[in-house]
């Protein structure tokens, strides 16, 4: 019923529609783009002129849940501008090697012909994202070379750290966030103002995104923006658009492919309905659209016969099950129980061969790092992830309800995070951000989201290890917790079934974070000194993994129980 | 040269013209908006901030203060003043040096020139409370990073940890003194004005996110090429002043005078507020049954506090004289650089420094300062009122800023404080003053490479100011001429920003743009000061009329 797409949409018909769609997106994005021009306009206007009008609208829409879009846009613009200017303040903060990675990609795409993008090895930070991201960097590199030609210099630009490159790259991240802002606008425009504000705060100014994108440096904001745009389209019944955007997203960053099964089954059951013939033709349409996207992305490289190189870069399986800092997922328990078993067996008098590879020492080679439990291979993790997604997929097969698509996709990313191979802790944002949109639906959702967001943001803390950023990350989390706490408790105040955190287990789990942090920061150096330097990180991983497992079980339960 | 002079004259002329026009028109507008506000206050219940308000005052206050701390921390990541600038480094070094001196020497040697305490190298030049504060912070630094405060060897110390620890001392003093004082003020203020509740979070944000204070305390950390008169840790003395104001608003006059004496003993600049405190308290005492007793009580508190703080020096005249002589460095002349005050602005036409000796200038500035305070003091003594007191603070701070000896750009923080306390009542005045105060310290901040936080904080301030919950639809059309004027002035300041950033000044007048900025800001400050004086007059007159009626 929701589908507004035409029944028989041939590719020829499709393309004008697509252009129209892109045009719309661009127009709206331009409107939302927080440019200097907008700012000036804001500053110039005497405040007195604007306010009355705004408040008038606000007064009227209090009774009416559907507010005039004008007000929403104004509010959103106001809020996103504040967060944008706050992001500007973070420019001189610490940035990780990812900064140099992206700078190198700018230089690489700018200097070299397309055929050498995926083969170049001038810098150790080779291009390992899918082609669209390379094109994106190529686009940015034109501006970069205008700003400062050294940025795009493949050799002289190595480890270039001048203010120009820092400001330029940070600004590109800030500007690319406008896609996220736009897609959030689309998702939240029918909600009431309180819920809308909560979602905006937890997405647009999410501490997770601030830490990862604006301090640590990456482009997750705009990739998640694409994901949210796709989810928004699916939610509104525009399946073709949703699938199209998701295909684009996959060509930007392949890690998002974990939700592929969910998307596939959903589109198969929801979009391709209405009898065999009609369904089949729709399937063909969707297939053509997706393949067209992939051809655009990979075609040029296929022409140069480089698909092998591209794939090799994108899937480096030699990297091992975990990072040096373990992402808080299922494998933390697996590794720890292996260590524990080894310890117990040694005590019991069995001979246990100590594994040559270590988990705390960074990269892991081919040899098995496990002493007792069987080795985990990429294939095994792949199987486990699929198995975990299976219940959700069955549910979708039975009843493809557009209202639940956000939860399903978030669940898929949760599974990918918990059981995947070589998962990075940043990947928890892939389900945290979508879940923010559904967090305001009920007090149970809010509770779950509240806990999950704390776990997820706290697990990002080790990314910023320098003293200068310490207060920033702590206060970001505290501020976020305070706003969510007050926001959720005022949203769900009518219901008398407990607060945002209920039950002593949850409460003590929350307090535990303070204990873990105090131990890692103060007590550990004081008591143990330099011994066991990996212990604080290990504790953080373990403690956050508990919360992540809980979140997974909660999501699984709620998906199975839903009708 | 002719061109430049002509330009200058032109700017002067237009400015005068503008300020006159502007004065008449904006006065009317402000008056109107105030009248309207009284009517509107009851309707105001729902706003963007309302959802934060369900748990009373604590919710918004916690969230907003956390956000302001976050902003302060982020600003402090930007470069600090005097970084890498040997041999005198900057005020950052001054602060560090004081910590070094206070933690290593006995109390009575702090202000005493000796081999171990070379006063020529960043000697202490603040009242003893600052020295005690340096001592406490010095102990904190010594605990975590002993190298940074060791005697002699730590001069010019600059390390990652040292810098961070210094930053965090500013942050903690902000959080421990300024924030609670603001909370207290807000609670008191909220209990005394009706229909204020929905404006409360906005007001908190306006006081805590004041861009000037954040940039100077957390970003600038002082530059060495200026006089010794100002310093970081402004938040301490300003916080103490806010505490005094809050105490005064809830009729705890003795507590108020205690806090104000503390503020005065932290930074002598707090004397900018002294006339207002003095006249209000005097006026109030005169209205009591036993005026002498009241005055004596206040006097005992003030003198007692002074004695307590000056205890180590009180025993000998020499020691007292040593400290006092450190506090008043008159040798530096009546003005320096380009401060938007009376002496500096008029020096474009009248060369004060050449016409008068320092001695006579001292006298002149003192007389003019005091006489410009007199009207508002007189009104406050005649008819003391709490609302009038806030305006009185603004007036006296402005008189000192305009006319006192040796004023620094950063002293604009002092008039800004009462203006921010009045933000709900006078949103336009506050916003206008903040914008031009920011502009007046722009050249200073630019030298410290603080352009980025300047832009960001400016924008955040304007946006939050714009987010003020507005109660009722304003049916009246805004005055076209007035808005045109405002836009013109803002455009002018924008253009000047760009010119200052991009255009090299003519070689003969290397400080041409600074002078123009100064003129523009001065004209706006004068306008605001005149407005607020007039406002106090209107207030007091209605009060006086009421008193007269009661008598009859």
From TrEMBL, chain A:
GO terms for cellular component: endoplasmic reticulum membrane. It is found in: Endoplasmic reticulum membrane. Its EC number is 2.4.1.-. One of its GO terms (molecular function) is dolichyl pyrophosphate Glc1Man9GlcNAc2 alpha-1,3-glucosyltransferase activity. Signal peptide: none annotated. GO terms for biological process: dolichol-linked oligosaccharide biosynthetic process. It is a multi-pass membrane protein. This is Alpha-1,3-glucosyltransferase. Keywords: Endoplasmic reticulum, Glycosyltransferase, Membrane, Transferase, Transmembrane, Transmembrane helix. InterPro entries: Glyco_trans_ALG6/ALG8. Its main location: endoplasmic reticulum. It is an enzyme of class 2 (transferase). The chain crosses the membrane at residues 76-95, 165-185, 197-217, 244-268, 280-301, 370-393, 405-421, 448-465, 471-488, 534-553.
TrEMBL record, chain B:
It is found in: Endoplasmic reticulum membrane. It is a multi-pass membrane protein. One of its GO terms (biological process) is dolichol-linked oligosaccharide biosynthetic process. Its main location: endoplasmic reticulum. GO terms for cellular component: endoplasmic reticulum membrane. The keyword rRNA-binding does not apply. Pathway: Protein modification; protein glycosylation. Keywords: Endoplasmic reticulum, Glycosyltransferase, Membrane, Transferase, Transmembrane, Transmembrane helix. Belongs to the ALG6/ALG8 glucosyltransferase family. PANTHER family: DOLICHYL GLYCOSYLTRANSFERASE (PTHR12413), DOLICHYL PYROPHOSPHATE MAN9GLCNAC2 ALPHA-1,3-GLUCOSYLTRANSFERASE (PTHR12413:SF1). This is Alpha-1,3-glucosyltransferase. It comes from Lactuca sativa (Garden lettuce).
């Amino acid at each position: 019923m929701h589908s507004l797409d035409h029944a028989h949409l041939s590719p020829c018909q499709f393309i004008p529609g697509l252009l129209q769609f892109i045009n719309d997106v661009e127009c709206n994005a331009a409107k939302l783009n927080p440019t200097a021009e907008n700012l000036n306009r804001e500053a110039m206007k005497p405040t007195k002129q604007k306010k009355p009008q705004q408040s008038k609208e606000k007064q009227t829409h209090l009774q009416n849940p559907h507010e005039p879009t004008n007000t929403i846009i104004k509010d959103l613009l106001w809020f996103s501008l504040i967060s944008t200017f706050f992001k500007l303040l973070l420019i001189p903060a610490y940035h990780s090697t990812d900064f140099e990675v992206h700078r190198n990609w700018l230089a690489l795409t700018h200097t070299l012909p397309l055929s050498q993008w995926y083969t170049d090895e001038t810098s150790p930070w080779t291009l390992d994202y899918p082609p669209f991201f390379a094109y994106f960097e190529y686009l940015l590199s034109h501006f970069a070379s205008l700003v400062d030609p050294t940025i795009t210099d493949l050799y002289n630009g190595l480890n270039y750290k001048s203010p120009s490159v820092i400001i330029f790259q940070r600004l590109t991240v800030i500007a690319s966030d406008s896609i996220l802002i736009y897609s959030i606008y689309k998702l939240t425009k029918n909600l009431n103002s309180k819920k809308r504000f909560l979602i905006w705060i937890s997405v647009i100014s999410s501490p997770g995104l601030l830490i990862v994108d604006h301090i640590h440096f990456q482009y997750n904001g705009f990739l998640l923006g694409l994901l949210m745009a796709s989810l928004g389209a699916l939610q509104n019944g525009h399946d073709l658009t949703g699938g199209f955007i998701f295909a684009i997203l996959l060509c930007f960053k392949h890690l998002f492919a974990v939700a592929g099964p969910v998307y596939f089954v959903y589109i198969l059951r929801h979009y391709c309905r209405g009898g065999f013939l009609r369904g089949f033709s729709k399937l063909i349409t969707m297939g053509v659209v997706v393949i067209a996207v992939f051809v655009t992305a990979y075609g040029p490289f296929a022409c140069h016969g480089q698909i092998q190189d591209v794939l090799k870069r994108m899937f480096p399986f030699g990297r091992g099950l975990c990072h040096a800092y373990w992402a808080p997922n299922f494998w933390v328990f697996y590794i720890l129980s292996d260590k524990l078993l080894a310890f117990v067996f040694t005590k019991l008098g069995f001979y246990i061969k100590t594994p040559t590879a270590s988990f705390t020492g960074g990269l892991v080679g081919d040899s098995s790092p496990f002493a007792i439990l069987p080795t985990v291979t990429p294939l095994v993790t792949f199987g486990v992830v699929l198995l975990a997604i299976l219940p959700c997929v069955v549910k979708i097969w039975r009843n493809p309800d557009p209202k639940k698509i956000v939860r399903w996709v978030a669940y898929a990313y949760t599974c990918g995070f918990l059981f995947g191979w070589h998962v990075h802790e940043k990947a928890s944002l892939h389900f945290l951000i979508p879940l923010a949109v559904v967090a305001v639906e009920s007090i149970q959702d809010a509770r779950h989201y509240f806990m999950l967001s704390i776990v997820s943001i706290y697990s990002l803390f080790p990314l910023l290890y320098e003293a200068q950023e310490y207060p920033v990350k702590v206060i970001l989390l505290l501020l976020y917790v305070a706003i969510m706490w007050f926001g959720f408790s005022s949203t769900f105040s009518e219901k008398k079934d407990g607060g945002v955190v209920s039950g002593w287990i949850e409460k003590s789990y929350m307090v535990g974070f303070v204990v873990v942090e105090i131990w890692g920061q103060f007590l550990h150096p004081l008591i143990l000194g330099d011994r066991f330097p990996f212990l604080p990180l290990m504790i953080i991983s373990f403690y956050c993994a508990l919360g992540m497992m809980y979140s997974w079980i909660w999501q699984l339960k709620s998906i199975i129980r839903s009708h | 040269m002719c061109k430049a002079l002509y330009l200058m004259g032109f700017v002067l002329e237009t400015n005068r013209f503008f300020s006159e026009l502007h004065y008449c028109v904006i006065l009317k507008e402000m008056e109107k908006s105030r009248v309207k506000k009284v009517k509107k206050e009851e309707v105001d219940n729902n706003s963007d901030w309302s959802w934060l308000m369900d748990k009373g005052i604590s919710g918004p206050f916690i969230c907003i203060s956390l956000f302001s701390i976050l902003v302060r921390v982020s600003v402090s990541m930007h470069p600090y003043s005097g970084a890498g600038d040997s041999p005198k480094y900057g005020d950052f070094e001054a602060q560090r040096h004081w910590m070094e001196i206070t933690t290593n020497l006995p109390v009575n040697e702090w202000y005493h020139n000796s081999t171990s305490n070379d006063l020529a190298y960043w000697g202490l030049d603040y009242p003893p409370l600052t020295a005690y504060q340096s001592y406490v912070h010095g102990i904190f630094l010594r605990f975590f990073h002993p190298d940074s405060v060791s005697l002699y060897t730590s001069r010019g110390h600059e390390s990652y940890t040292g810098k961070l620890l210094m930053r965090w001392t500013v942050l903690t003093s902000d959080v421990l003194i300024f924030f609670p004082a603001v909370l207290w003020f807000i609670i008191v203020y909220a209990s005394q004005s009706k229909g204020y509740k929905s404006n409360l979070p906005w007001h908190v944000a306006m006081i805590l996110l004041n861009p000037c204070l954040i940039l100077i305390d957390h970003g600038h950390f002082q530059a060495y090429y200026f006089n010794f008169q100002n310093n970081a840790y402004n938040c301490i003395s300003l916080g103490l002043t806010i505490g005094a104001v809050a105490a005064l608003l809830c009729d705890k006059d003795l507590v108020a005078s205690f806090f104000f004496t503390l503020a005065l003993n932290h930074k002598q600049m707090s004397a900018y507020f002294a006339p207002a405190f003095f006249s209000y308290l005097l006026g109030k005492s005169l209205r009591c049954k036993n005026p002498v007793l009241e005055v004596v009580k206040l006097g005992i508190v003030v003198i007692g506090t002074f004695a307590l703080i000056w205890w180590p020096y009180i025993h000998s005249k020499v020691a007292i004289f040593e400290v006092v002589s450190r506090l008043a460095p008159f040798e530096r002349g009546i003005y320096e650089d380009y401060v938007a005050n009376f002496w500096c602005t008029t020096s474009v036409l009248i060369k004060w420094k050449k016409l008068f000796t320092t001695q006579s200038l001292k006298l002149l500035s003192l007389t003019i300062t005091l006489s410009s305070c007199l009207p508002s003091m007189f009104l406050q003594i005649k008819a003391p009122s709490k609302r009038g007191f806030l305006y009185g603070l603004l007036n006296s701070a402005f008189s000192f800023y305009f006319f006192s000896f040796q004023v620094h750009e950063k002293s604009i923080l002092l008039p800004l404080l009462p203006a921010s306390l009045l933000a709900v009542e006078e949103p336009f005045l506050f916003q206008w003053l903040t914008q031009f105060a920011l502009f007046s310290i722009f050249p200073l901040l630019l030298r410290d490479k603080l352009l980025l936080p300047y832009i960001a904080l400016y924008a955040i301030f304007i946006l939050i100011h714009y987010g003020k919950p507005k109660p009722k639809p304003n049916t009246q059309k805004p005055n076209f001429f007035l808005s045109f004027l405002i836009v013109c002035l803002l455009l002018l300041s924008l253009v000047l920003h760009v010119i200052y950033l991009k255009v090299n000044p003519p070689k003969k007048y290397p400080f041409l743009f600074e002078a123009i900025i100064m003129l523009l800001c001065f004209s706006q400050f004068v306008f605001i000061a005149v407005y607020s004086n007039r406002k106090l007059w209107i207030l007091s007159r209605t009060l006086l009329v009421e008193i007269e009626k009661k008598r009859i």
